[in-house]
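Quick one - first record:
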Amino acid sequence: MKKIVIAGAGAYFFAPAIFEDLFVRFRMEAEYWMVDADLDMAELSARGAQALARAFGVQARFYYTTQLQKAAFSADAVILCSDFLDEEAWKKDFESLDAVGLGKQVRLRGGLGGAMQTMRAVGFVCDLADQMREECPCAPLILCSSGYGGLPLSRACEAAQRFCVTFPNVSEIAPEPVLIQMS
């Protein structure tokens, strides 16, 4: 049975669409690991996904955790649903730059603040991609972002590709061709 990890499973704007694709559209039988920084959200996501899978007759097992490293071990695919908007870090960026007269530069996607946010987000993605290269080298890393929360997809994809050497044929994971689009 395939193992699919959904990191950031509590992201309410991504999880429903991903669950619809997995259980309604593709009806993918797999072992699903729901990972979120908030254990209650991870559990809620797992229970919701389990109910949807059951309703559509999809055979699947569900687990939930806060430990992405544990879940990603031997995964067949990792879906990262997170916008990396860390309000505390953003405030620190603002205060630090404002102290030297550059507070107006703290924006999510531009200026010095955007660069600081990018370094935090891309650092996380690179660490995950590096772990995946060691523990599940054939698993694709699928990045989902709304574009508003600080995950610069083009930079994150470039960084992840530098760490991930090989990608499997998508048909090994999904029963039909999948169009991957970034907008």
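second record:
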Amino acid sequence: MHFLGKLDRAFDKLMNVMLLLSGILVIVDTVAVAQDVIVRKTFDWTWAPLYELLQYSLVWITFLGCVAIYRDHGHVKMDSMVAMLPKRAGNLVNFITSCAVALLCILMLFLTARLTLHDAQTHFVLASVLNPVKWPIEIIIPIAFLMLFVQSIRHGVTYFRAFRSGEPLEADKPAEPAEPAA
């Protein structure tokens, strides 16, 4: 179990790095767009490939950020329906949902990895201003699905343990009342 704990912490650190990289890309994109607007209004000139680069970075931002959002339960859930159920039944529904997400993620991982590998082997080039090779742009998609698969397994295990024990999850427990200030 000690090894799994270390692996769990390493996985969380990797997700934090991915979220940090996503944040850096957001900042770079923001500065690039602001700079482009200033240059366009001042000198009536724009760098045409910028918008293409922004499109590619938005793909990376989306898939880098979605993993951390899923880890932190920031995604859309069935909270209103599950809240009406007893805690044990709610944990069962969440466990089943996590299993369905895991199956979907493994399917998408297979399909996107196969496509990315095909694009890398055939040296597929996008027909655009920059004519970039496609696989470095899309490699983040199977990576994100792998991370989402692992995270859905983690969620499923948590919900299954909560279902078996009958105890509510830490997030579901009512908060302790604050001590009055003296």
